[in-house]
């Protein structure tokens, strides 16, 4: 008999709380998918050095996964608490009919454990199925082509999922059964009528909380704006935690004040409320906001974090990729701190791998005594020296390169030749959209247009071109400060001084496909060069870009994992409250039906009621995240010319709307089926 009773209750629970069960299935599936990354073919195709770096990202994902499991555990704990509270009259009836309290606790334990086991099994099956497609996504993000394999299955991820989620479901089931075992009969009979939060009914108190909320949130927004306009991104800035704390406090105050404020508005909007079912709708929504104010505030903060995390993760990943792509324009680059470094063995290695000598350029970068201001007109130099945000280019030491080497570099990249006469010079500077770089380029261009002459190592040089050259040559050649292109004789004079800091570089651009084994061989050659007081480094464009795509992938995966889970949890909490209220108050809709409301009117009423309830925390979250993202975008544009947060926010909004909208439609459908008059009979 008890088995039949448990089976009947289990089927009814899965029918009434299908959205909650679906979320558990997706949570298990997503956990398995992201923890299966180390066993994906794309990951196994990475080089050994990339795989070592990737392990740090995998460990971060595992740590985040564990934390998110704790968040899901809170969802399961809260959901079971709400479900049992709504069923408390039913459970009390079992006791009245003669069931002892121990068997009631075992019955509830069996039901909760069965739901958890079903969600765990279905989630693992779904995770294994979806991980096949996820492997293709990993290939796209990491930019690798993996060897074809059969069905990918990660025993480690499956075991970790079973242990973590199985333990979580078991702990929650035991706690729930113990809680019911300790409750008295009168508590079970009256449990469904107790509110979870204390509602704010006093209008003066609500108005005071509203004013305090406005002041608190206004201060938090002002601090975000101030921080975004301060030079230098400093996460330890005390204004950051203060602003976050004020934003959290202001959000809770806002929701605690909403119900009382909405009650006051109701008395002044009788004309609109008197039409149709608006008054009924208004009372339903304000009652839910009042009763669940703390939960709605928490959901709003979770959604704010979700939007900001996903937008920042996507935006920073794209920005870092663009920045590093511009900083490694050549296939191979070797740099030595010894200006007399011998590269004959390396040249022979390149030749043995089919790289012609004309595709290799060897040169010296020399640090001069000039500063950026020496290449500018006096008025521009004085102005930039006094500019704390855009003036650092005026103070930086200028590096020089021989004209012959510079022409070879331009030829490697297919840029047009720019001749340099014996008494001429060129200026090459970074132009990446950063305000400081733009200000420096404009100042340098005005000096060149004015024919500004430069004194260098006893040579008086005049501009060989009237514009600043800005082709991307990478941070190793053209950094924040300008690069001065001088005649070969002037560079030799600089080197002859003997005390000038200089570096010898070699860049190579093999034609066609990258030669097999060349990168590994060149790296071994560089590692074998030993300098007593210096260094030799080798950079491969493919290796650097692979590392870059790995970093971008980790940022994207982590932000998506956290973001999707928070959206699922938030939407599930809202849907769960709607469904439980339906089960408790569907008699009200039966009365409306008897009073003459047809199915179309009730359907529209349900859609509007669920929509307003779902929309309330979203509006606050959009306001918070809009302020935060505008401030973050302003700071990143100023500090690093990363103007990618805006487009990433649009992608995030699309994902958010799709997932959140799906839960809204499912909630409306569930509520309509439960609000049917025959269901209430």
From TrEMBL:
Keywords carried by this UniProt record: Cell membrane, Membrane, Transmembrane, Transmembrane helix, Transport
Keyword Ion transport appears in the UniProt entry: no
One cellular-component annotation, GO: plasma membrane
UniProt domain ABC3 transporter permease C-terminal: residue ranges: 64-181
Compartments, record wording: Cell membrane
TM regions (residue ranges): 17-34, 63-83, 104-137, 157-181, 202-224, 244-265, 293-316, 548-576, 610-632, 644-666
Cited InterPro entries: ABC-4_Integral_Memb_Prot (IPR052536), ABC3_permease_C (IPR003838), ABC_permease_BceB-typ (IPR027022)
Any single GO BP term: transmembrane transport
Main location: membrane
UniProt topology in membrane: Multi-pass membrane protein
Coiled-coil intervals, chain numbering: none
Stored PANTHER family: ABC TRANSPORTER PERMEASE, ABC TRANSPORTER PERMEASE-RELATED-RELATED
Recorded family membership: Belongs to the ABC-4 integral membrane protein family.
This protein's name: ABC transporter permease protein
Organism name: Symbiobacterium thermophilum (strain DSM 24528 / JCM 14929 / IAM 14863 / T)
Lineage: Bacteria, Bacillati, Bacillota, Clostridia, Eubacteriales
């Amino acid at each position: 008999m008890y088995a039949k009773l448990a089976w009947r209750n289990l089927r009814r629970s899965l029918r009434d709380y299908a959205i909650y069960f679906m979320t558990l299935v997706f949570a298990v599936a997503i956990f398995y998918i992201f923890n299966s990354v180390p066993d994906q073919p794309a990951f196994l195709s990475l080089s050994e050095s990339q795989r070592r770096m990737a392990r740090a990202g995998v460990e971060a994902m595992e740590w985040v996964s564990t934390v998110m499991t704790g968040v899901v555990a809170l969802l399961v704990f809260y959901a079971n608490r709400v479900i049992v509270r709504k069923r408390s009259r039913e459970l009390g009836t079992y006791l009245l009919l003669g069931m002892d309290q121990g068997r009631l606790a075992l019955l509830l334990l069996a039901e909760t454990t069965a739901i958890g086991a079903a969600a765990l099994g279905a989630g693992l099956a779904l995770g294994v199925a979806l991980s096949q497609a996820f492997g293709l996504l990993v290939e796209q993000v990491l930019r690798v082509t993996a060897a074809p394999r059969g069905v990918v299955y990660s025993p480690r991820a499956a075991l970790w999922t079973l242990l973590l989620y199985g333990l979580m479901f078991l702990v929650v089931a035991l706690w729930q059964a113990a809680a019911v075992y300790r409750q008295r009969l009168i508590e079970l009979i009256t449990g469904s009528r107790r509110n979870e939060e204390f509602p704010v009914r006093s209008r003066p108190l609500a108005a005071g909380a509203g004013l305090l909320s406005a002041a608190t949130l206004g201060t938090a927004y002002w601090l975000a704006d101030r921080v975004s306009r301060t030079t230098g991104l400093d996460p330890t800035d005390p204004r950051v935690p203060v602003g976050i704390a004020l934003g959290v406090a202001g959000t809770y105050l806002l929701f605690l004040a909403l119900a009382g404020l909405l009650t006051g508005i109701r008395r002044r909007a009788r004309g609109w409320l008197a039409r149709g079912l608006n008054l009924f709708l208004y009372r339903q929504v304000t009652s839910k906001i009042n009763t669940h104010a703390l939960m709605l505030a928490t959901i709003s903060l979770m959604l704010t974090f979700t939007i900001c995390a996903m937008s920042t993760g996507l935006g920073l990943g794209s920005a870092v990729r663009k920045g590093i792509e511009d900083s490694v324009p050549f296939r191979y680059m070797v740099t030595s701190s010894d200006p007399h470094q011998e590269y004959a063995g390396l040249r022979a290695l390149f030749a043995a791998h089919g790289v012609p000598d004309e595709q290799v350029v060897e040169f010296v970068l020399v640090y001069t005594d000039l500063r950026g201001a020496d290449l500018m007109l006096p008025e521009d130099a004085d102005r930039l020296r006094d500019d704390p945000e855009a003036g650092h280019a005026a103070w930086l030491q200028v590096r020089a390169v021989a004209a012959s080497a510079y022409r070879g570099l331009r030829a490697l990249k297919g840029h047009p030749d720019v001749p340099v006469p014996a008494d001429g010079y060129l200026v090459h500077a970074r132009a990446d959209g950063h305000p400081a770089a733009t200000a420096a380029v404009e100042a340098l261009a005005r000096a060149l247009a004015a024919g500004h002459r430069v004194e260098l190592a006893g040579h008086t040089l005049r501009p060989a071109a009237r514009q600043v050259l800005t082709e991307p040559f990478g941070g190793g050649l053209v950094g924040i400060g300008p690069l001065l292109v001088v005649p070969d004789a002037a560079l030799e004079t600089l080197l002859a001084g003997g005390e000038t800091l200089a570096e010898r570089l070699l860049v190579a651009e093999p034609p066609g496909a990258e030669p097999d084994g060349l990168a590994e061989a060149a790296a071994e050659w560089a590692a074998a060069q030993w300098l007593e007081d210096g260094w030799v480094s080798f950079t491969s464009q493919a290796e650097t870009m692979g590392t870059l795509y790995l970093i971008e992938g980790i940022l994207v995966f982590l932000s998506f994992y956290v973001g999707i889970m928070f959206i699922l949890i938030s939407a599930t909490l809202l849907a769960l409250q709607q469904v439980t209220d339906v089960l408790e108050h569907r008699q009200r809709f039966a009365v409306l039906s008897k009073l003459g409301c047809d199915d179309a009117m009730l359907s529209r009423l349900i859609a509007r009621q669920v929509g307003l309830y779902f929309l309330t925390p979203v509006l606050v979250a959009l306001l918070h995240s809009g302020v935060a993202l505008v401030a973050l975008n302003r700071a990143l544009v100023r500090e690093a010319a990363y103007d990618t947060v805006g487009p990433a926010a649009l992608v995030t909004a699309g994902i958010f709307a799709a997932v959140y909208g799906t839960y809204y439609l499912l909630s409306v459908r569930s509520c309509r089926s439960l609000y049917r008059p025959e269901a209430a009979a």
